[in-house]
Amino acid sequence: MTQAKQHAISINLNKCTGCVHCLTACPTQAIRIRDGKARVIDRQCIDCGECIRHCPRDAIESHTTSFSDLQRFAYKVAIPATALYGQFGNSVLPYEILYALRKIGFDHVYDLSAICELYIAAVEEYLTEHAQPRPVIASTCPVVVRLIQRRFPALSELIVPFEPPREIGAKILRSTLPAALKLKPEDIGIIHITPCPAKLVSINHPATMKKSFLDGAVSIRDIYPPILDILRKKDDTAIMRHLFPDSSMSGLGIGWSISGGETRSLPKFRTVAVSGVQDTIHVLDQVESGLLRDVDYLECMVCPDGCVGGPLSIENRFLAKSRILHLAKKAGDKSVIDRSEIRTMYRENFLSFQHPLEPQPSAPLDADPAEAIRKAGLRDEILQRLPGKDCGFCGAPYCATLADDIVRGLADIRDCPMTWKETP
Amino acid sequence: MTGDKAFRTEFSVKGREFSRAGDVSCRIKNLLKDIGIDAGTVRRLAIAAFEAEMNVIMYARQAVISLAVTPEKVSIIVDDEGPGIPDINLAMKEGFSTATREMRELGFGAGMGLPNIRKNSDVFHLTSEPGQGTRLEITVCLDGSRP
Questions:
Q1: What is the ipTM of this complex?
Q2: Which of B4, B24, B33 to mutate to test binding with chain A, by most A CBs within 10 Å of its CB?
Q3: Measured at the alpha carbon of residue A401, what is the angle toward residues A396 and A407, in degrees to the nearest 5?
Q4: pLDDT in tens, A357-373
Q5: Could you tell me which chain A residue has the CA closest to the CA of B74?
Protein backbone atom coordinates (compact mmCIF):
# COMPACT_ATOMS: atom_id res chain seq x y z
CA MET A 1 0.00 0.00 0.00
CA THR A 2 2.41 2.63 -1.15
CA GLN A 3 2.24 5.39 -3.68
CA ALA A 4 5.82 5.66 -4.92
CA LYS A 5 6.34 7.09 -8.39
CA GLN A 6 8.74 9.88 -9.12
CA HIS A 7 9.78 9.92 -5.50
CA ALA A 8 11.81 7.91 -3.06
CA ILE A 9 9.32 8.62 -0.28
CA SER A 10 5.92 7.08 0.22
CA ILE A 11 3.38 6.76 2.98
CA ASN A 12 2.61 3.38 4.44
CA LEU A 13 -1.13 3.78 4.72
CA ASN A 14 -1.40 0.93 7.22
CA LYS A 15 0.84 2.74 9.67
CA CYS A 16 -0.32 6.31 8.97
CA THR A 17 -2.83 7.59 11.52
CA GLY A 18 -3.45 10.89 9.76
CA CYS A 19 -1.87 13.01 12.49
CA VAL A 20 -0.40 16.36 11.45
CA HIS A 21 3.30 15.97 12.20
CA CYS A 22 4.47 15.54 8.61
CA LEU A 23 1.97 18.09 7.36
CA THR A 24 3.62 21.03 9.07
CA ALA A 25 7.14 19.63 8.75
CA CYS A 26 7.00 19.60 4.96
CA PRO A 27 8.85 22.70 3.71
CA THR A 28 7.07 22.77 0.36
CA GLN A 29 3.55 22.08 1.66
CA ALA A 30 3.45 18.88 -0.37
CA ILE A 31 1.38 16.83 2.10
CA ARG A 32 -2.37 16.79 2.76
CA ILE A 33 -4.43 14.52 4.95
CA ARG A 34 -7.23 12.99 2.89
CA ASP A 35 -9.63 10.37 4.25
CA GLY A 36 -7.57 10.18 7.42
CA LYS A 37 -4.26 9.43 5.71
CA ALA A 38 -1.31 11.55 4.64
CA ARG A 39 -0.91 11.95 0.87
CA VAL A 40 2.05 13.37 -0.99
CA ILE A 41 1.50 15.81 -3.84
CA ASP A 42 4.09 14.47 -6.26
CA ARG A 43 4.68 17.72 -8.08
CA GLN A 44 5.60 19.60 -4.94
CA CYS A 45 7.69 16.97 -3.15
CA ILE A 46 11.45 17.60 -3.26
CA ASP A 47 12.42 14.39 -1.40
CA CYS A 48 14.07 16.24 1.47
CA GLY A 49 12.99 13.63 4.01
CA GLU A 50 11.71 16.10 6.63
CA CYS A 51 8.53 13.99 6.90
CA ILE A 52 10.61 10.91 7.70
CA ARG A 53 12.26 12.80 10.55
CA HIS A 54 8.97 14.00 11.99
CA CYS A 55 6.68 10.99 11.62
CA PRO A 56 6.14 9.54 15.11
CA ARG A 57 4.81 6.26 13.68
CA ASP A 58 7.53 5.40 11.19
CA ALA A 59 4.88 5.46 8.48
CA ILE A 60 6.97 7.25 5.90
CA GLU A 61 9.01 4.83 3.90
CA SER A 62 11.95 5.66 1.74
CA HIS A 63 12.70 3.54 -1.26
CA THR A 64 16.35 2.91 -1.63
CA THR A 65 18.07 0.00 -3.36
CA SER A 66 18.01 -3.27 -1.43
CA PHE A 67 20.82 -5.82 -1.28
CA SER A 68 18.78 -8.35 -3.21
CA ASP A 69 18.48 -5.86 -6.11
CA LEU A 70 22.26 -5.98 -6.43
CA GLN A 71 22.46 -9.67 -7.20
CA ARG A 72 21.77 -9.04 -10.88
CA PHE A 73 25.25 -7.52 -11.24
CA ALA A 74 28.25 -9.76 -11.82
CA TYR A 75 30.53 -7.09 -10.39
CA LYS A 76 29.40 -4.71 -7.66
CA VAL A 77 31.08 -1.43 -6.80
CA ALA A 78 30.20 0.67 -3.75
CA ILE A 79 30.73 4.43 -3.70
CA PRO A 80 29.83 5.44 -0.16
CA ALA A 81 28.97 9.03 0.74
CA THR A 82 31.72 10.33 3.01
CA ALA A 83 29.02 10.70 5.68
CA LEU A 84 29.39 6.96 6.23
CA TYR A 85 32.78 7.57 7.88
CA GLY A 86 31.09 9.33 10.78
CA GLN A 87 28.58 6.60 11.58
CA PHE A 88 30.69 4.27 13.70
CA GLY A 89 32.76 4.50 16.87
CA ASN A 90 35.57 6.99 17.39
CA SER A 91 38.23 4.37 16.85
CA VAL A 92 36.79 3.13 13.56
CA LEU A 93 38.75 4.48 10.61
CA PRO A 94 37.53 4.96 7.03
CA TYR A 95 39.66 2.12 5.66
CA GLU A 96 38.01 -0.30 8.09
CA ILE A 97 34.56 0.78 6.89
CA LEU A 98 35.59 0.46 3.25
CA TYR A 99 37.04 -2.96 3.94
CA ALA A 100 33.83 -4.02 5.70
CA LEU A 101 31.94 -3.12 2.52
CA ARG A 102 34.22 -5.47 0.62
CA LYS A 103 33.49 -8.24 3.08
CA ILE A 104 29.75 -7.65 2.76
CA GLY A 105 29.92 -8.47 -0.92
CA PHE A 106 31.06 -5.48 -2.92
CA ASP A 107 33.82 -6.43 -5.34
CA HIS A 108 35.23 -2.95 -5.36
CA VAL A 109 34.87 0.02 -3.02
CA TYR A 110 35.66 3.54 -4.09
CA ASP A 111 36.41 6.37 -1.67
CA LEU A 112 34.75 9.65 -2.65
CA SER A 113 36.99 12.07 -0.77
CA ALA A 114 39.36 12.44 -3.72
CA ILE A 115 36.45 13.13 -6.09
CA CYS A 116 35.09 15.74 -3.68
CA GLU A 117 38.45 17.48 -3.87
CA LEU A 118 38.39 17.15 -7.66
CA TYR A 119 34.93 18.75 -7.82
CA ILE A 120 35.89 21.74 -5.74
CA ALA A 121 39.10 22.24 -7.71
CA ALA A 122 36.98 22.35 -10.86
CA VAL A 123 34.61 24.81 -9.13
CA GLU A 124 37.65 27.01 -8.50
CA GLU A 125 38.43 26.94 -12.23
CA TYR A 126 34.82 27.77 -13.01
CA LEU A 127 34.66 30.68 -10.56
CA THR A 128 37.91 32.08 -11.91
CA GLU A 129 36.68 31.85 -15.48
CA HIS A 130 33.15 33.17 -14.85
CA ALA A 131 33.13 36.47 -12.97
CA GLN A 132 29.34 36.67 -13.21
CA PRO A 133 26.63 35.91 -12.23
CA ARG A 134 26.91 35.56 -8.47
CA PRO A 135 26.46 33.70 -6.20
CA VAL A 136 27.27 30.41 -7.89
CA ILE A 137 25.35 27.68 -6.06
CA ALA A 138 26.70 24.18 -5.36
CA SER A 139 25.14 21.27 -7.25
CA THR A 140 25.96 18.61 -4.66
CA CYS A 141 22.71 18.35 -2.71
CA PRO A 142 20.05 16.89 -5.03
CA VAL A 143 17.26 18.34 -2.88
CA VAL A 144 18.63 21.86 -3.28
CA VAL A 145 18.70 21.33 -7.05
CA ARG A 146 15.04 20.25 -6.99
CA LEU A 147 14.07 23.03 -4.63
CA ILE A 148 15.60 25.60 -6.96
CA GLN A 149 13.94 24.06 -10.04
CA ARG A 150 10.52 24.27 -8.41
CA ARG A 151 10.50 27.11 -5.96
CA PHE A 152 13.29 29.37 -7.25
CA PRO A 153 13.23 28.67 -10.99
CA ALA A 154 15.00 31.94 -11.82
CA LEU A 155 18.01 30.74 -9.84
CA SER A 156 18.49 27.58 -11.92
CA GLU A 157 21.20 29.28 -13.96
CA LEU A 158 23.24 30.01 -10.82
CA ILE A 159 23.89 26.34 -10.08
CA VAL A 160 27.43 25.29 -10.95
CA PRO A 161 26.91 23.10 -14.04
CA PHE A 162 28.91 20.13 -12.73
CA GLU A 163 27.62 16.73 -11.77
CA PRO A 164 28.08 16.02 -8.05
CA PRO A 165 31.05 13.92 -6.85
CA ARG A 166 29.05 10.66 -6.61
CA GLU A 167 28.19 10.90 -10.32
CA ILE A 168 31.71 11.93 -11.35
CA GLY A 169 33.12 8.98 -9.40
CA ALA A 170 30.70 6.62 -11.11
CA LYS A 171 31.50 8.13 -14.50
CA ILE A 172 35.22 7.55 -14.00
CA LEU A 173 34.57 3.93 -12.99
CA ARG A 174 32.20 3.40 -15.87
CA SER A 175 34.75 4.61 -18.36
CA THR A 176 37.54 2.40 -17.03
CA LEU A 177 36.11 -0.75 -15.40
CA PRO A 178 34.46 -2.62 -18.31
CA ALA A 179 37.71 -2.76 -20.29
CA ALA A 180 39.86 -3.47 -17.26
CA LEU A 181 37.60 -6.28 -16.08
CA LYS A 182 36.57 -7.48 -19.55
CA LEU A 183 32.94 -7.27 -18.48
CA LYS A 184 29.89 -5.89 -20.22
CA PRO A 185 28.98 -2.45 -18.83
CA GLU A 186 25.55 -3.70 -17.77
CA ASP A 187 27.10 -6.42 -15.63
CA ILE A 188 28.84 -3.84 -13.48
CA GLY A 189 26.66 -2.30 -10.78
CA ILE A 190 27.86 1.00 -9.33
CA ILE A 191 26.02 1.73 -6.11
CA HIS A 192 26.03 4.82 -3.95
CA ILE A 193 25.66 4.45 -0.21
CA THR A 194 23.50 7.29 0.96
CA PRO A 195 22.31 9.10 4.06
CA CYS A 196 19.22 10.47 2.24
CA PRO A 197 16.47 9.19 -0.07
CA ALA A 198 16.91 12.02 -2.57
CA LYS A 199 19.98 10.40 -4.11
CA LEU A 200 17.88 7.59 -5.49
CA VAL A 201 15.54 10.10 -7.11
CA SER A 202 18.51 11.85 -8.68
CA ILE A 203 19.63 8.45 -10.01
CA ASN A 204 16.23 7.35 -11.32
CA HIS A 205 15.19 10.77 -12.61
CA PRO A 206 18.39 12.73 -13.22
CA ALA A 207 17.85 16.46 -13.68
CA THR A 208 20.80 17.23 -15.93
CA MET A 209 21.62 14.06 -17.84
CA LYS A 210 19.86 11.33 -19.78
CA LYS A 211 20.95 8.47 -17.57
CA SER A 212 22.73 8.41 -14.25
CA PHE A 213 26.16 6.74 -14.05
CA LEU A 214 24.98 5.07 -10.85
CA ASP A 215 22.78 2.00 -10.72
CA GLY A 216 21.25 2.52 -7.32
CA ALA A 217 21.61 3.82 -3.80
CA VAL A 218 21.63 1.72 -0.65
CA SER A 219 20.74 3.57 2.54
CA ILE A 220 23.16 3.86 5.43
CA ARG A 221 20.29 2.63 7.58
CA ASP A 222 20.22 -0.68 5.69
CA ILE A 223 23.95 -1.18 5.41
CA TYR A 224 24.82 -0.20 8.95
CA PRO A 225 24.06 -3.55 10.66
CA PRO A 226 26.14 -5.75 8.33
CA ILE A 227 29.06 -3.28 8.47
CA LEU A 228 28.87 -3.31 12.24
CA ASP A 229 28.97 -7.13 12.28
CA ILE A 230 32.19 -7.10 10.26
CA LEU A 231 33.77 -4.32 12.32
CA ARG A 232 33.12 -6.27 15.50
CA LYS A 233 35.26 -9.13 14.22
CA LYS A 234 38.24 -6.80 13.75
CA ASP A 235 40.35 -9.21 11.73
CA ASP A 236 42.56 -8.81 8.65
CA THR A 237 43.93 -5.45 9.78
CA ALA A 238 47.04 -5.69 7.62
CA ILE A 239 45.04 -6.42 4.46
CA MET A 240 42.63 -3.60 5.22
CA ARG A 241 45.41 -1.05 5.51
CA HIS A 242 47.00 -2.34 2.35
CA LEU A 243 43.78 -2.17 0.36
CA PHE A 244 42.70 1.27 1.48
CA PRO A 245 45.80 3.18 2.55
CA ASP A 246 45.25 6.42 4.42
CA SER A 247 47.45 8.11 1.81
CA SER A 248 44.70 7.76 -0.83
CA MET A 249 42.21 9.85 1.17
CA SER A 250 41.88 13.52 0.54
CA GLY A 251 42.08 15.77 3.57
CA LEU A 252 40.16 18.41 1.64
CA GLY A 253 37.44 15.99 0.58
CA ILE A 254 36.91 14.00 3.73
CA GLY A 255 34.97 16.75 5.51
CA TRP A 256 32.36 17.15 2.78
CA SER A 257 29.57 15.53 4.70
CA ILE A 258 29.41 18.45 7.10
CA SER A 259 28.21 21.92 6.31
CA GLY A 260 31.14 24.07 5.21
CA GLY A 261 33.04 21.09 3.84
CA GLU A 262 33.00 22.48 0.33
CA THR A 263 33.62 26.11 1.12
CA ARG A 264 36.66 25.22 3.24
CA SER A 265 38.50 24.39 0.02
CA LEU A 266 37.87 27.78 -1.59
CA PRO A 267 39.95 30.14 0.53
CA LYS A 268 40.46 32.57 -2.36
CA PHE A 269 36.76 33.21 -2.71
CA ARG A 270 33.95 34.65 -0.63
CA THR A 271 31.79 31.75 0.36
CA VAL A 272 28.71 31.03 2.44
CA ALA A 273 27.65 27.62 3.76
CA VAL A 274 24.03 27.01 4.75
CA SER A 275 22.40 23.88 6.10
CA GLY A 276 18.88 22.87 7.04
CA VAL A 277 15.89 23.15 4.76
CA GLN A 278 14.27 26.25 6.28
CA ASP A 279 17.55 28.17 6.37
CA THR A 280 18.28 27.11 2.80
CA ILE A 281 14.88 28.42 1.67
CA HIS A 282 15.47 31.66 3.55
CA VAL A 283 18.86 32.24 1.93
CA LEU A 284 17.58 31.34 -1.55
CA ASP A 285 14.77 33.85 -1.01
CA GLN A 286 17.43 36.46 -0.32
CA VAL A 287 19.37 35.49 -3.43
CA GLU A 288 16.18 35.89 -5.43
CA SER A 289 15.80 39.38 -3.99
CA GLY A 290 19.22 40.30 -5.32
CA LEU A 291 21.23 39.80 -2.15
CA LEU A 292 24.47 37.83 -1.76
CA ARG A 293 25.82 39.21 -5.02
CA ASP A 294 29.15 39.75 -3.35
CA VAL A 295 29.31 36.03 -2.51
CA ASP A 296 31.14 33.84 -5.00
CA TYR A 297 30.00 30.42 -3.89
CA LEU A 298 26.96 29.36 -1.92
CA GLU A 299 26.94 25.88 -0.47
CA CYS A 300 23.46 24.73 0.54
CA MET A 301 22.66 21.40 2.15
CA VAL A 302 19.09 20.77 3.20
CA CYS A 303 19.91 18.38 6.00
CA PRO A 304 20.85 20.01 9.29
CA ASP A 305 24.66 20.26 9.58
CA GLY A 306 25.00 18.71 6.11
CA CYS A 307 24.86 15.08 4.95
CA VAL A 308 25.75 13.84 8.44
CA GLY A 309 22.20 14.98 9.31
CA GLY A 310 20.66 12.86 6.55
CA PRO A 311 17.36 11.19 7.47
CA LEU A 312 18.69 7.73 6.57
CA SER A 313 21.82 7.93 8.69
CA ILE A 314 22.07 6.12 12.02
CA GLU A 315 24.40 8.04 14.29
CA ASN A 316 23.14 11.29 15.76
CA ARG A 317 24.47 14.09 13.66
CA PHE A 318 26.43 15.80 16.41
CA LEU A 319 28.53 12.73 17.09
CA ALA A 320 28.87 12.03 13.37
CA LYS A 321 29.97 15.61 12.79
CA SER A 322 32.49 15.43 15.60
CA ARG A 323 34.01 12.28 14.10
CA ILE A 324 34.21 13.76 10.62
CA LEU A 325 35.83 16.89 12.01
CA HIS A 326 38.33 14.72 13.81
CA LEU A 327 39.15 12.82 10.61
CA ALA A 328 39.44 16.05 8.65
CA LYS A 329 41.74 17.55 11.27
CA LYS A 330 43.94 14.50 11.24
CA ALA A 331 44.15 14.51 7.45
CA GLY A 332 44.80 18.25 7.34
CA ASP A 333 44.84 19.88 3.91
CA LYS A 334 46.31 16.84 2.25
CA SER A 335 45.66 16.95 -1.47
CA VAL A 336 45.55 13.76 -3.52
CA ILE A 337 44.68 15.17 -6.91
CA ASP A 338 46.71 16.56 -9.75
CA ARG A 339 45.60 20.11 -10.55
CA SER A 340 46.66 19.96 -14.19
CA GLU A 341 44.55 16.83 -14.68
CA ILE A 342 41.55 18.66 -13.26
CA ARG A 343 42.10 21.50 -15.67
CA THR A 344 42.08 19.03 -18.54
CA MET A 345 38.89 17.38 -17.26
CA TYR A 346 37.33 20.82 -16.86
CA ARG A 347 38.26 21.87 -20.39
CA GLU A 348 36.98 18.60 -21.81
CA ASN A 349 33.68 19.07 -19.96
CA PHE A 350 34.10 15.75 -18.22
CA LEU A 351 32.22 17.04 -15.18
CA SER A 352 29.65 19.13 -17.00
CA PHE A 353 25.90 18.67 -17.05
CA GLN A 354 24.76 16.94 -20.22
CA HIS A 355 21.92 19.42 -20.55
CA PRO A 356 21.02 22.56 -18.61
CA LEU A 357 18.91 22.31 -15.50
CA GLU A 358 15.35 22.94 -16.52
CA PRO A 359 13.28 25.21 -14.26
CA GLN A 360 10.02 23.59 -13.15
CA PRO A 361 7.98 26.43 -11.69
CA SER A 362 4.95 25.44 -9.63
CA ALA A 363 1.56 25.71 -11.30
CA PRO A 364 -0.03 29.17 -11.18
CA LEU A 365 -3.52 29.57 -9.73
CA ASP A 366 -4.84 29.44 -13.28
CA ALA A 367 -3.34 29.11 -16.74
CA ASP A 368 -5.25 32.21 -17.82
CA PRO A 369 -3.58 35.29 -16.29
CA ALA A 370 -6.87 37.18 -15.82
CA GLU A 371 -8.41 34.20 -14.07
CA ALA A 372 -5.28 33.71 -11.94
CA ILE A 373 -5.55 37.35 -10.86
CA ARG A 374 -9.21 36.85 -9.95
CA LYS A 375 -8.37 33.72 -7.97
CA ALA A 376 -5.61 35.53 -6.09
CA GLY A 377 -8.22 38.03 -4.90
CA LEU A 378 -10.68 35.29 -4.05
CA ARG A 379 -7.99 33.45 -2.11
CA ASP A 380 -7.41 36.55 0.04
CA GLU A 381 -11.17 36.78 0.74
CA ILE A 382 -11.36 33.11 1.71
CA LEU A 383 -8.34 33.45 3.97
CA GLN A 384 -10.11 36.28 5.79
CA ARG A 385 -12.95 33.89 6.63
CA LEU A 386 -10.66 31.16 7.94
CA PRO A 387 -9.75 31.18 11.64
CA GLY A 388 -5.97 31.53 11.20
CA LYS A 389 -5.23 28.80 13.75
CA ASP A 390 -3.21 26.66 11.32
CA CYS A 391 -4.45 23.56 13.15
CA GLY A 392 -4.25 21.14 10.21
CA PHE A 393 -7.68 19.66 10.92
CA CYS A 394 -8.86 20.36 7.37
CA GLY A 395 -5.98 18.30 6.00
CA ALA A 396 -3.88 21.24 4.85
CA PRO A 397 -0.97 22.49 6.94
CA TYR A 398 -2.01 26.14 7.16
CA CYS A 399 -5.16 28.19 6.65
CA ALA A 400 -3.39 29.88 3.74
CA THR A 401 -2.76 26.48 2.15
CA LEU A 402 -6.44 25.58 2.51
CA ALA A 403 -7.45 28.88 0.89
CA ASP A 404 -5.04 28.12 -1.94
CA ASP A 405 -6.42 24.59 -2.34
CA ILE A 406 -9.98 25.94 -2.40
CA VAL A 407 -9.36 28.35 -5.27
CA ARG A 408 -7.54 25.60 -7.14
CA GLY A 409 -10.62 23.40 -6.74
CA LEU A 410 -8.85 20.87 -4.52
CA ALA A 411 -10.69 21.56 -1.27
CA ASP A 412 -13.85 23.08 0.11
CA ILE A 413 -14.29 25.76 2.75
CA ARG A 414 -16.41 23.28 4.72
CA ASP A 415 -13.26 21.22 5.23
CA CYS A 416 -12.49 23.75 7.97
CA PRO A 417 -14.41 22.76 11.13
CA MET A 418 -14.39 26.33 12.40
CA THR A 419 -16.37 27.59 9.44
CA TRP A 420 -19.18 25.05 10.04
CA LYS A 421 -21.00 27.45 12.30
CA GLU A 422 -20.80 30.12 9.65
CA THR A 423 -22.05 28.16 6.62
CA PRO A 424 -25.57 26.77 6.79
CA MET B 1 -4.82 51.48 -13.44
CA THR B 2 -7.36 49.07 -14.84
CA GLY B 3 -10.40 48.83 -12.63
CA ASP B 4 -12.03 45.57 -11.59
CA LYS B 5 -9.61 43.21 -13.32
CA ALA B 6 -6.73 44.00 -11.01
CA PHE B 7 -5.55 42.05 -8.03
CA ARG B 8 -4.75 44.50 -5.27
CA THR B 9 -3.25 44.15 -1.87
CA GLU B 10 -1.44 46.28 0.66
CA PHE B 11 1.32 45.71 3.15
CA SER B 12 2.55 47.95 5.89
CA VAL B 13 6.23 48.29 6.71
CA LYS B 14 7.69 49.93 9.82
CA GLY B 15 10.91 51.88 9.84
CA ARG B 16 13.89 50.34 11.69
CA GLU B 17 12.28 46.92 11.80
CA PHE B 18 15.39 45.24 10.43
CA SER B 19 14.31 41.90 11.84
CA ARG B 20 11.47 41.74 9.31
CA ALA B 21 13.50 42.98 6.37
CA GLY B 22 12.51 41.15 3.21
CA ASP B 23 9.18 39.78 4.49
CA VAL B 24 6.98 41.98 2.33
CA SER B 25 9.03 41.63 -0.83
CA CYS B 26 9.05 37.88 -0.28
CA ARG B 27 5.24 37.82 -0.01
CA ILE B 28 4.95 39.95 -3.12
CA LYS B 29 7.28 37.59 -4.93
CA ASN B 30 5.28 34.51 -3.96
CA LEU B 31 2.03 36.19 -5.01
CA LEU B 32 3.49 36.99 -8.42
CA LYS B 33 4.63 33.38 -8.81
CA ASP B 34 1.12 32.15 -7.92
CA ILE B 35 -0.35 34.43 -10.57
CA GLY B 36 1.93 32.77 -13.07
CA ILE B 37 4.24 35.64 -13.95
CA ASP B 38 7.41 34.35 -15.57
CA ALA B 39 10.45 33.71 -13.40
CA GLY B 40 12.63 36.44 -14.92
CA THR B 41 10.00 39.15 -14.40
CA VAL B 42 9.32 37.92 -10.87
CA ARG B 43 13.01 38.23 -10.11
CA ARG B 44 13.17 41.83 -11.39
CA LEU B 45 10.17 42.74 -9.28
CA ALA B 46 11.52 40.87 -6.27
CA ILE B 47 14.75 42.85 -6.46
CA ALA B 48 12.92 46.16 -6.89
CA ALA B 49 10.45 45.40 -4.08
CA PHE B 50 13.22 44.32 -1.75
CA GLU B 51 15.25 47.49 -2.34
CA ALA B 52 12.15 49.63 -1.83
CA GLU B 53 11.26 47.80 1.36
CA MET B 54 14.82 48.26 2.65
CA ASN B 55 14.69 51.98 1.94
CA VAL B 56 11.59 52.24 4.11
CA ILE B 57 13.15 50.24 6.92
CA MET B 58 16.36 52.26 6.81
CA TYR B 59 15.01 55.78 6.42
CA ALA B 60 11.25 56.13 6.91
CA ARG B 61 8.93 55.93 9.92
CA GLN B 62 6.47 53.72 8.13
CA ALA B 63 5.03 53.00 4.73
CA VAL B 64 2.24 51.31 2.87
CA ILE B 65 3.33 49.16 -0.04
CA SER B 66 0.52 48.57 -2.53
CA LEU B 67 0.66 45.93 -5.18
CA ALA B 68 -1.62 45.87 -8.23
CA VAL B 69 -1.48 43.13 -10.85
CA THR B 70 -3.35 43.08 -14.14
CA PRO B 71 -2.72 40.76 -17.09
CA GLU B 72 -0.77 43.65 -18.68
CA LYS B 73 1.37 44.97 -15.84
CA VAL B 74 2.47 44.87 -12.23
CA SER B 75 2.59 48.11 -10.26
CA ILE B 76 4.09 48.67 -6.87
CA ILE B 77 3.53 51.90 -4.97
CA VAL B 78 5.50 52.68 -1.85
CA ASP B 79 4.08 55.58 0.11
CA ASP B 80 6.15 56.45 3.11
CA GLU B 81 6.08 58.88 5.98
CA GLY B 82 9.60 59.99 6.61
CA PRO B 83 12.29 62.57 6.01
CA GLY B 84 11.77 62.64 2.26
CA ILE B 85 14.52 63.11 -0.32
CA PRO B 86 15.75 66.72 -0.70
CA ASP B 87 17.54 66.14 -4.01
CA ILE B 88 16.12 63.30 -6.07
CA ASN B 89 18.68 63.64 -8.88
CA LEU B 90 21.50 63.23 -6.40
CA ALA B 91 19.74 60.30 -4.73
CA MET B 92 19.46 58.54 -8.07
CA LYS B 93 23.24 58.56 -8.62
CA GLU B 94 24.84 55.16 -8.25
CA GLY B 95 26.91 55.05 -5.10
CA PHE B 96 25.24 58.04 -3.48
CA SER B 97 24.07 57.09 -0.04
CA THR B 98 23.07 58.76 3.19
CA ALA B 99 23.33 55.48 5.08
CA THR B 100 24.90 55.71 8.50
CA ARG B 101 28.03 53.79 9.35
CA GLU B 102 25.89 51.35 11.34
CA MET B 103 23.77 50.57 8.28
CA ARG B 104 26.81 50.10 6.07
CA GLU B 105 28.32 47.73 8.58
CA LEU B 106 25.14 45.71 8.32
CA GLY B 107 25.70 45.54 4.59
CA PHE B 108 23.06 48.07 3.59
CA GLY B 109 23.25 51.48 2.07
CA ALA B 110 25.70 50.96 -0.76
CA GLY B 111 23.86 53.66 -2.67
CA MET B 112 22.61 51.18 -5.25
CA GLY B 113 19.01 50.91 -4.00
CA LEU B 114 17.21 53.49 -6.12
CA PRO B 115 19.30 52.97 -9.29
CA ASN B 116 18.70 49.24 -8.89
CA ILE B 117 14.95 49.76 -8.59
CA ARG B 118 14.96 51.90 -11.72
CA LYS B 119 17.04 49.31 -13.57
CA ASN B 120 14.51 46.61 -12.73
CA SER B 121 11.36 48.53 -13.65
CA ASP B 122 9.85 49.77 -16.91
CA VAL B 123 8.21 52.86 -15.43
CA PHE B 124 9.85 54.55 -12.48
CA HIS B 125 8.40 57.55 -10.74
CA LEU B 126 9.77 59.08 -7.57
CA THR B 127 8.34 62.12 -5.81
CA SER B 128 9.18 63.46 -2.42
CA GLU B 129 8.14 66.13 0.00
CA PRO B 130 11.07 66.82 2.33
CA GLY B 131 9.97 66.43 5.92
CA GLN B 132 6.79 64.59 4.88
CA GLY B 133 7.62 61.50 2.91
CA THR B 134 8.38 59.85 -0.39
CA ARG B 135 6.22 58.14 -2.98
CA LEU B 136 7.76 55.61 -5.31
CA GLU B 137 5.77 54.17 -8.16
CA ILE B 138 7.12 51.46 -10.34
CA THR B 139 5.56 49.41 -13.10
CA VAL B 140 6.78 46.35 -14.90
CA CYS B 141 4.98 45.48 -18.12
CA LEU B 142 4.03 41.89 -18.82
CA ASP B 143 3.90 40.08 -22.17
CA GLY B 144 7.17 41.75 -23.07
CA SER B 145 5.31 44.96 -23.96
CA ARG B 146 7.12 48.19 -23.14
CA PRO B 147 5.42 51.56 -22.88
A1: 0.89
A2: B33
A3: 110
A4: 999 998 999 999 999 99
A5: A373
